[in-house]
Structures are given as structure tokens and as C-alpha cells.
Amino acid sequence: MQDGSQINATLDTANSSPIIKAANVTLDGTLNLSSTATFVAPETDEHFGSITLIDSQTAITTDFDSVTLDADTSAMPDYLTINAGVDANDNTNYELSTGLSWYAGAKSARAAHGTFTVDAGSTFTVTSELDETTATSDWNGSKLTKQGDGTLILSNTGNDYGDTEIDGGILAAKDAAALGTGDVTIAESATLALSQGTLDNNVTGEGQIVKSGSDELIVTGDNTYSGGTTISGGTLTLTMRIRWVPGLLLTAACFRSAKASWKIRFPAAARW
User: Fold this and answer.
1) Looking at the predicted structure, is the pLDDT value of residue 5 above 80?
2) Which of 234, 246, 182 is nearest to 209 (CA)?
3) Integer Cα distance of 207 and 186 in angstroms
4) DSSP letters of 20-64?
5) In a designed cystine with 173, which of 49, 154, 221, 226 is the match (CB 3.0 to 4.6 A)?
6) How far apart are CA 174 and CA 152, in angstroms?
7) Are residues 257 and 238 in contact, defined by beta-carbon separation less than 8 angstroms?
8) What are the φ and ψ backbone dihedral angles of 177, each rounded to 5 degrees?
9) pLDDT tens per residue, range 116-172
10) Where do the domains of the chain lie?
């Protein structure tokens, strides 16, 4: 393609073949796409889909100067976007793909941000590694914000982002290592749900922590959250000196402290 040229294409759910097939492809100019496809939000980033736009027999080493997408994204959660670019797993294909808004780039339908709004009754699981990325005018490139009354599950223990803010619903992780490296703030009526690992983040706010599963959760951070701690299974081990311990609701679990000074407030409903 020559500089200043354009490709205009319309996509729908029936598209199954590339728009362009060629032995060699050199990209330039503008790609204008419109789509009538209906978006269905996946429950995990493992189910992201893609459409091949250009199929070359050799590697595509260039790109369009700009990409525009005219599509109804109203049904797309804020944590998802549409990206245009060379397939990371096959550089002979140029594709349109679903991705996390966290890693959105210049040729994405949305600007990069760290907010995950999961609606009530819905769950979304992030298996990809969330690392600190390029900051934008509205986001520092490292903070994760959980909003909505649904559940966001982080399953990658290699996450290396910064602070976590839970404004509503549940943020769940089997292993506390998935929370990244920064402080955790839990808003009132919000929940941080963990099963195992070492929680070395400092936790603040008016929300609660729920410990589930049969494994051990070790807490080492400087915690001042006030929403309570529910242990529904396994062992919660405290290895730091505690300045404040929220009320503990124990249900068929073991609570122990290696070296600590604390107060435990048991609810009237507790049974022994």
C-alpha cells in the first residue's frame, strides 16, 4: 500500500476469510473498519477471539499509520477493547482481536486504563500477567481498580502491577501473590477473597477479607482495614505485630499467630 491510501471494510459474524491475501504485504495509510457483529463478553481472557484481516505468505513488518473502528461497543465491558495489529503468534497475519484495556495501544478502540467493572451476577477471570505499563493522561499505568458488584478473579501469581483498589463486589485470588506489589484498599461492602499464599501488601479501608479453602494464608503486611475477617476454611497465620485486628468470624477453621499482640472480637453467633 502507498502512503495516504485507505482500506475500507465491513465486518460481521459471517466473516471467516481474510480481506486480503498476498505473497508479500507492506502496510501504510489508513485502515477504516466498520462492524455489525454482536459482542458477547467472555468470562475469561482465555476465550478472547480474533479475525484475520490480512494473510501474507511472509512476515508483515510494517503497519498502518492509523486505524479507525466503527462498531457498537456498548455491550463490551470497560476492561476489554478491540486491537488491530500483527498477530503476536504469527507475524504473517494482521488481525482484529479482543484484548484487555490494560494493554490497549494506539490502534485499540479504547485508551489504556486499569479499571475492571464487573456487573452483579457476572465473573471475569484474568489469567494474563498484569504488569506496569505505559501511563496515560488518566491512568498511572500500574493501579488496578475493581468496580461493580460482580467478581473479578486474578489467577496469575506473576502479576507485577502496583496498588489495588476494590470499590465494590469481590476481588478474588487463590494465591495472594496475584495482587501485585502495592497497597490494597477495600471500600465498605467490598470484599477481598483469598485462599492461600503470603499477603504482604498493606491493606486499608472499610471492607472485609474472606479466607476460604483448606490451605494456609500468611498475613505479613501492615493492615488497618476495618470490615472484618471471615475464615471459612484452612489456616490464617499472622507473622507481624498487629496494631489493629478486625473482628474475626471463625467457621470450622484454625486461627493462629506466630508472634502477635491482638484483640479478637467474636460475634454473638459464634459457637464453640
Assistant:
1) no
2) 246
3) 5
4) EEESS----SEEEEEE-PPP---SBGGG--EEEEEEESS------
5) 154
6) 12
7) yes
8) -65, -20
9) 999 999 999 999 999 999 999 899 999 999 999 999 999 999 999 999 999 999 999
10) 1-109, 113-266
